[in-house]
Design brief:
- It contains 11 helices and no strands.
- It has 204 residues and is an all-alpha fold.
Amino acid sequence: MVEVTHRERKRAQTRQRISDTATRLFERDGFDSVTLAQIATAADVSVKTVTNYFGAKEDLFFDAEPAVLATLIAAIQGSEPASATAALRPLLLEGPLLAGPCPWARVDADLWQGMRDWTRCESESVTLRNRRSSILQSWLVPLAGATGSMPWAALMIGALALRHHLLQEGLLEGASPAVVDKRMSDVVGQALDAIEVGFGPPAR
């Protein structure tokens, strides 16, 4: 086991404090209205410290996305003998969060409201909507590398975009977790079925 040093723990704590502070400010004031200087002041660090941990303000909003991609890749790499599509199906359908176990049945009111606030913040910012699209496109090569199939990866990114759209739409219209779960199972499930029929287990 690799020992985590005191310095590494302090860095992780500082990074998390900056991220949590930015989240509160984004949800309260809107992403576009919040400056790096405001985040730094609220987190009791310098602007340079913020940019040392996060290269751009958008990275503060999307700081969980690298973990999401890592979760997808890990599921694909551990999928044999099942197909990569089958391996990703539970992640896409069994809960609202792609990284971290959170079944639909365990989504409480506080979590759902927090997701709604986060989603509203993203939907109101052109910058964030564009970055979301850019992030999804950036996953094409890693997903293709994990499966050996660029066409499969392109279609899976489409399924991920569809999933995000349905989740965002449901949150913004005030739908319940059960309603959004049903929509995702029906619509995203059909997309995954089509990918599975078209490709089966991608060549590795």
